[in-house]
Write a sequence for this structure.
């Protein structure tokens, strides 16, 4: 029986890769047979991949992940092998050419964002980020220096004066540091939704990282996703700037980062996200990115 694709996933991908979407049920059946797996629940999905809970031949729970062949997931399997399950989901099998991974099963209903104490959750994320970034990067990964240089090639002059000033300031800071991009292994999207609880009785540590979009560079570039976590709660606090500064301080202290350098590479991430907004035709820049950028500029701009 063909695997039922989630309706939201179909809607998300039908406009940009209908051929891949049409072939996806056949890919699933192929790998169920190839790796001797049986479905163990309805398929779920992330932003770019279908994830099907399965059982291996010996009954062990696992997850079959099939993603589109895109640049962002090029090094995912190599990085998961390098992490070897230390603070991250274990890779059990892979087909690199089709971006198909067999992963250990985690509890997708319990991301780190379900932890009630947001500061305890941030401490968990910081500890995991420190561990996974300390692993030597596998060969062949994209490099932050190239990504940053490409961003600076065409910074738009936005009509809104505040937005234009933000992008100009970010670009100016990035130009000062673009030649010192760093050499650490970056996740690139480590927010609390990309940290899941391990299964009960699995013998694994409580929280594990998933879904790297690997990059080699300065660890300051990896702070943004966590700075923007639970943004509704940040806004509801009534002190957006205070919460952003506290998060930034907790992360830079916990990771042992030079705060001024981390400021620069965080602004590089603000610039990247804002450029994506412009490219996507958004009528205005994302409010969280603007607030984080303006808060850090007010605190650290020299």
């Amino acid at each position: 029986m063909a695997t039922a694709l989630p309706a939201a996933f179909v809607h998300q991908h039908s406009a940009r890769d209908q051929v891949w979407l049409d072939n996806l049920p056949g890919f699933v059946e192929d790998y169920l047979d190839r790796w001797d797996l049986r479905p163990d629940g309805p398929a779920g999905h992330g932003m770019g991949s279908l994830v099907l809970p399965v059982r291996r031949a010996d009954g062990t729970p696992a997850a079959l992940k099939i993603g589109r062949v895109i640049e962002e997931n090029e090094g995912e399997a190599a990085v998961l092998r390098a992490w070897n399950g230390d603070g991250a989901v274990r890779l059990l099998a892979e087909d690199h050419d089709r971006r198909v991974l067999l992963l250990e099963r985690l509890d997708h209903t319990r991301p780190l964002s379900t932890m009630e104490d947001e500061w305890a959750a941030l401490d968990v994320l910081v500890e995991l980020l420190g561990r996974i970034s300390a692993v030597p990067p596998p060969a062949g990964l994209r490099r932050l220096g190239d990504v940053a240089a490409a961003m600076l090639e065409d910074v738009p002059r936005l009509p809104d004066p505040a937005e234009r000033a933000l992008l100009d300031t970010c670009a100016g800071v990035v130009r000062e540091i673009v030649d010192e991009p760093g050499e650490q292994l970056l996740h690139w999207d480590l927010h609390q939704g990309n940290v899941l609880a391990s299964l009960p009785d699995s013998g694994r540590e409580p929280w594990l990282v998933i879904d790297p979009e690997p990059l080699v560079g300065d660890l300051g570039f990896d702070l943004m996703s966590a700075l923007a976590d639970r943004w509704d709660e940040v806004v509801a606090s009534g002190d957006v700037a205070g919460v952003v500064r506290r998060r930034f301080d907790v992360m830079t202290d916990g990771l042992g980062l030079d705060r001024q350098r981390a400021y620069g590479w965080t602004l590089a991430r603000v610039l990247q996200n804002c450029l994506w907004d412009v490219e996507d035709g958004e009528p205005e820049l994302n409010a969280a990115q603007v607030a984080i950028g303006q808060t850090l500029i007010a605190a650290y701009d020299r």
About this structure: The chain has eleven helices and eleven strands.
